[in-house]
Here is the input.
Amino acid sequence: MQRKGMKSSGKRHPIFTWNFYEGEIVVTKHGFKVKKRFSLMTGVIFLVALGGWTELPLEATYERPAVDAETALKANFYEDVKIVDGLDSYQVLVNKNFALTPDDAPKDLRVIQVLDANRNFNLTIKMRSRAADMVEQLFQAAAAEDYNLLAVSGYRSYPHQKDLYEYYVQEHGKKEADRFSARPGHSEHQTGLALDVSSISLDGKITENFGETPEGIWLVNNAHLFGFIIRYPEEREQETGFMYEPWHLRYVGIAPARIIQQNNWIFEEYVENVLGMAR
Ligand SMILES: [Zn+2]
Here is the structure.
């Protein structure tokens, strides 16, 4: 009865031997065939016994692991990195998959005329000219309504970002540092279009609490009027790659900022849906 090439598996038992032949189970006792066909119940008992004996799961169960919001990030962050082509556009996309080179630096940087974190007139923080104009208007409009913003960090060169990132890795470990500090070449601060802000009420400190200050709330509602977006909104870390940063403003232009605000988008969605560029 054994057909050549059809035997798929066999198990050795002191008395009984069973073999699978194409769709049938054949049991032999001391080499003599004892039963070839089984009732349904016998077949089930036999298969359960065989399953237990061989420790093969008869029924595979798979429970989906719980998603950890902090770690369930886009799978290819910092992999498949594309180099950004030119810094001229106010809608330049720089993130964990689009990078600037060490030599990339905007040509139209200037010092922004606002208060810094120490409440002194700023002498060092720079942004691109157009973004600087708009941030000054934004600070003035806020001050007119008694919201007191302070500028903390604007343009950062590639080497500056490298030092900063390496410092955070040393302090917090790489995994945690990657949540809030971009690796060199991947920081929006290198575009000259980003500004970290704080308030007098927070004494110029960068903290998540900023989102709950009157200034933080005012920015959520008004930054787009000056062409800025809150670049890393709450609960979008899996897509942006960065934790909630209510303090990080990014200049994109007034029309794009309005569209992003109206649709509740992150910048990547604007790039994909409006500029037609794959993220
Ligand atoms: Zn920032």
In short: The first strand starts at residue 10 and ends at 12.
